[in-house]
User: What shape does this take?
Amino acid sequence: MTDHAVLLAIRRAFVVVVVGNQIGLTLPSLAGHPHGTPAWIAYALLTAVLAVVAGHVAVGRAQLHPVVAASVTAAVLTASVLAATGLPAEASFGAADWAFGLVGWYLLLVLLEWPRVVVAVLAAHICFCSAWFAHAGDGDVGNAGVVILSGTSFQLGVLVMARVVLRDARLAAAAAAEQEAARTREALTRQREQDLRAGFEGQLGAVLPLLADLADGVVTSGDEATRLRCSVAAVQLRRLFAENDDVPDPLLHELTACVDVAERRGVVVSLAVSGVAVEVPTEVRRELVAPMAQALAVAEGRAKVSLLRTGGEVRVAVVADAPAVPPQAPVEPVAVTVETSVHSGLVRSEARWRTT
Amino acid sequence: MADDVTAVVVDDHPVVRAGVEHWLASEGIALVASGEDAGVAWEGPGADASVVVLDLHLGGVAPALPELRKLVEDGRRVVVYSMRADDDVVLQCMEIGALSYVTKAEGAEHLVQAVRAAADGQSYTPPALAGALAGDSSETRPALSPRETEVLVEWFQSESKEFVAQRLNISLSTVNSHLERIRVKYAAIGRQAPTKAALVARAIQDGLIGLDDL
Assistant: This one.
């Protein structure tokens, strides 16, 4: 429940209380005793105030505009004065005093949002009635005290309860909003992780199936073919780790990473670079490096990796001693042209990308 | 003749001088002098050596391009032997008129071939130099035919002329003559230096290139 809805519900409850009070309790008292015209004017004023507030509540407006609140408060206080001064002799705080308690309820109804103002205005109302009672000087002081204390303390109690409910609703709403935000954050994080995992899965290529096969015992590391798959996977992983590094020449950085893995396997690799670094998009880099990484993974003995950048082209090539043609990259290249061939025991694989 | 080839090595590292001497000696090339500055190529036995093997970094920060220029202008045949493989430095040396540029990452084989070719007044294009030429995108670069470019690139990529010949389905000598033509085209651009002029003149005499190619 929102703040607004709680305030509206409380104000509705007050409207019901005030209507019940005014018709059920006050009207018989007013009608049953000899009151003058001012009392009826006061009653009409209060009814008008009730109509204004009930109108607000009926259209779902919980909050009274401060100007409206001030106007109707003035009307209520006027009614209070009219009713108190219009009472017959010795009637203050007695059975004929229809207005004292009702005005208190009206003040609660109108000034619900401003508890300090309610207390202040209620105090003014009580003071005025007490002063009028003292001025007349003919009433029962004990009875008056009981009426003031019981009526006012009950009304103040209700006010406190209403304020507590409102405060709790506000805290609950804040907590709910915080929970909602936390849920959103959590969902976002989950989505990001999922994206990252999907991205890696897309790039992991041969790694996941190989790990699954090893785990299932479908293949063993003693197998030559499996070792070949492992070395392909190792180069792919190393390249993937290098892909997001912040370096001035990412393509050369990825090539160096693949060369590093091959060298650890005992392949003697020479790397030659020519031309100046150009901007190469990540997808193109993947495609440029992939054939060379595949070839290096199966290379034995010596290999020569070269990176050539001319005015309109980037060419990554590897010439290596290899027992067989390297396995084809799992993904067909889109942006680059790949050519692989074998000549007198040397495997040559080249990927070319036109920059223009 | 191979027996007549003599060389002088200018390098500030004794171990490099000793290594080069050993490589050349094992191929029958006599090292007549060696030292850590270019003076050794101007005085004493070094002044008569047929080939100068020059390191570009002789202790100083700047590459020894003035020394190279002086040697070339005097008609000496110079093979630059350097640890640097930056394309612009390589191309600058070619522009000045060095007959070859061998990086120290490239082994004995390329250095010996470069010295032998230089002794005959010919250029030699090792793979790193081929890469620099293939990657050259300067405005002054000579126009190479698609075949020449392909030979350069394949040679740079494979380091094996046999492999290039097989790949492009041409003979080994055709691979060599393509590389030679490329070097001559390079030699013909920019300011003329005696060795460059001689290289071009010789290529025309041999029918390797025509005047139209220049």
